[in-house]
Amino acid sequence: MINTAVFQNKKAAYYTLGCKLNFSETSTFGKMLMELGVTGVQEGEKADLCLINTCSVTEVADHKCRQAIHRMVRENPGAFVVVTGCYAQLESERVSKIEGVDLVLGSNEKADLIQFLSDAWTSKESEREMGESNENNSLHQYFSVKTKNIKSFAPSCSRGNRTRYFLKVQDGCDYYCTYCTIPYARGNSRNPSIDSLVAQAQKASEEGGKEIVLTGVNIGDFGKTTGESFVDLVKALDQVEGIERYRISSMEPDLLSDELIDFCATSRAFMPHFHIPLQSGSDEVLRLMHRRYDKALFAHK
User: Fold this and answer.
1) Which of 70, 92, 171, 235 is 20 to 30 A distant from 243 in Cα terms?
2) Do 47 and 120 belong together in one domain?
3) Do 192 and 134 lie in a common domain?
């Protein structure tokens, strides 16, 4: 059970590294916390809660994550600090040992972030009231299952202070490319149903949303969980009244079907624009990277 009292009249600071999907998830966490009585810090204020959503695409990203954690701890003394995201999944024990970090949640556990946070923050508040040192207590907890056991999907349809929403349609990746850590950090490809995503888009429209960006780790792989397809999702979302524009985030060239291209060229609301990654112009390098396309396929798209 969530202890709502621990959240009342608290102020939170958020820091996000990495992709649009991370920003969307952080925004959703912030909205959930706001509903429990937590407000965002204003300039010059100290936070009671710090949430860092991390990235781990490269060693540089890992270094930036550690820097961000140290900075948040330093600037908000005494705050409850929770770290989640890809770096938290891959290096959960290491992150938990950073001074000032109270809770680390991997990719599977962040779907239940509020419950984990409620339990751990309540424990910390109780120990403070009893005057106990938390140096050797149950805090500094970390929770992360192995990659093969990452099954949860945390829904996210969020916005900042504008009318553009970010709708998470997919998570995880089955493309174990040579250089990439994301499948290990996010787990295998999974997705919710088209009906549930249409319902989220309709709610965004009712809230005044005009534009939705579809986000995910490998969104063209949508459908692995439900037996549906990405083009069917696009066609269903195009019918949601009130949403004037949809944009599709980065999509692998081998998953960008001609049917999808043709539909977006004439659809009511989907913008005729695609971001198609190209890691190399060399077929040999693409093969060594375990990419699932070559120059000819990319040129065709």
Assistant:
1) 171
2) yes
3) no
**Spatial distance between the Cα atoms of 23 and 41, rounded to a whole number of angstroms:** 17
Domain boundary (148, 170, 192) is at: 148
What is the tens place of the pLDDT at every residue in 4-30?
999 999 999 999 998 888 988 999 999
Q: What is the pLDDT of residue 157?
A: 86
Q: 124 and 166: one domain?
A: no
Confidence check: pLDDT of 160 > 70: no
User: In whole angstroms, what is the distance from residue 240 CA to residue 236 CA?
Assistant: 7
Give yes or no: residues 193 and 105 share one domain. Answer: no
User: Residues 140, 36: one domain?
Assistant: yes
Find the Cα–Cα–Cα–Cα dihedral 201, 203, 208, 212, rounded to 10°. Answer: -20
For residue 168, the enclosing domain spans 157-300
Number of alpha carbons in the 13 Å side-chain half-sphere of residue 265: 6
pTM of the model: 0.85
Pairing verdict, β 80-85 and 103-105: parallel
**Is the per-residue pLDDT at 140 higher than 70?**
no
Instruction: State which of 148, 167, 194 marks the end of a domain.
Output: 148
Same domain, 253 and 227: yes
